[in-house]
Prior knowledge:
The protein has 147 residues and is an alpha+beta fold. The chain has one helix spanning 11-61, and strands at 66-73, 76-83, 89-93, 98-100, 104-108, 114-115, 119-123, 129-134, 142-146.
Amino acid sequence: MQNNKIIAFTLIESVLVLVISTIVLTLGVIWGPACLQAVQERNFWITFDRQWRMVMIEANRYDEQVKIDFSHISNHSRVIFTFEKSNKVTRLDYPPQLQNARNVEAVYRKGGGLKMQKVMIKNMRTKQVYTLVPQIGVGGKYVIQKQ
């Protein structure tokens, strides 16, 4: 005689699976945007540093002056690198959570001189303020101070 038992989930197992799924989805909804913004911010700073170095190298190689605009226009901030002679323009957009406190223009001169004021960039999510401070006599370097 054959046993015709049907293997199925019990009510307790089904409820347990639903509870675990709900917890995982809730944590994903709560932590997902914060994690995404943190990754975007980290990628922005890496890209900014790489772009800054490339611009300084190209400016020294081609003996050009570069204008660097840290601009904030209608809830959208970006950095614009403009080469004076060749009119080459490179734009780097901020992630949505970062904003300039005010528009700042910096000029990288031939030979490594940097004419720049402090640039304050605020993270709207964490309220942390990053201050880019130019380093005098170091050839276009900057330091990021976190407050």
